[in-house]
Amino acid sequence: MKGQPFIKRVGFALHGLQLAVRREGSFRIHLLAAALVLLVLLATRPGPLWWALLTLAVGLVLVAELVNSALEALSDHVHPEEHPEIGAAKDIAAGAVLVASGIAVVVGLAYALDWLAG
Description:
By secondary structure, the protein is mostly helical. The chain has a single domain (25-117), classed as Helix Hairpins. The protein is 87% helix and 0% strand. The protein contains 4 helices and no strands. It has helices spanning 6-23, 25-44, 48-78, 84-117.
C-alpha cells in the first residue's frame, strides 16, 4: 500500500513470503533446493564470485516462483472460470520459472565442473 511506513511494508512482504511457503508446494521445493545449494557452498567453500553467482541464480528462481504464484492467485480470484488468456498468462509465468530454473542448473553445473577441475 502506498504511503505506509517502511516497517509496515516489510511486514506485508514477510506475510507474502509466509503465504507462499504455506500455500505453494513448488515454492517449498525451491526453498529445499536453495538449502541444498547453501549446504554445498558451505561444504565446498568456494570463492566470493561463486557465492554471488549461485546466490543470484537461486534468488532468480525464488523470485520467478513468487511472481508466478502471485499471478496465479490474482488471476484465479479475478477470473475463477477457465479462460484462454488467463491460461496463457499462467503458462507464460510458469515458463519464466522454467527458464530461471534452467539458468540455475547451468550455473550449478559450471560450478561443479570448476570445483572438480580445481
